[in-house]
Amino acid sequence: MQMSVQDPSLTAPQCGDCPIRHRAVCARCEADELASLDAIKFYRSFEAGQTLIWSGDRMDFVASVVSGVATLSQVMEDGRTQTVGLLFPSDFVGRPGRDTAAFNVVAETDLLMCCFRKKPFEELMVRTPHIAQRLLEMTLDELDVAREWMLLLGRKTAREKIASLIAIVARRDASLHMKPAGGKMVVDLPLTREAMADYLGLTLETVSRQISALKRDGLIRLEGKRHVTIPDYDRLLEEAGDDSDGGLPG
To answer: Does domain 156-240 bear CATH number 1.10.10.10?
Structure first.
């Protein structure tokens, strides 16, 4: 496991000021429950490109993403890498009751994680229904996202895949800031075009060509390679092949 060590006082928010408080595993916790979590938590920060966890590693912690974005990936026997998911702020890493990691987790941007020692967290889940209930909700949302990903890879065209990914990033950013997704939206894409190609099962050339086509058709505007303005979110969803709300969890 690789880690860039930073002074937690410079980067780690207090629970009451945490930007993911309303969406994280602690979202339903009362003050005494937060105090119990606080007693077993610590922060880890990673630089873009670092591997947090390797598939098969023994995990002695679980964690929530506080800021930044990471990818979940699996390396096949012939060396090919398939990205199977994205971790956004408030997403949960690790599985209570499982000793080893199922996937590689790689920081795509600089990343801050709020970590909990695994054994005490598992014990706290038994005593704290609010944590177990919230984790169940998050697991069901994760299942919906996995089904969305299967549709995206299996049935959508290259254009629809790119439009879907941009819409997903915009929706998650809006949810984190407690705003509805719709109308004009401005987001920063967390992935390089190479990472987008890995995630979507496309070539780099196809990703670049489809982004240029979406830009030419007025569905997005770009400043640099990652700062994206979406003039009309619903129109982008139509290009993605989704209904007005995406049919997807926030």
So the answer is: yes
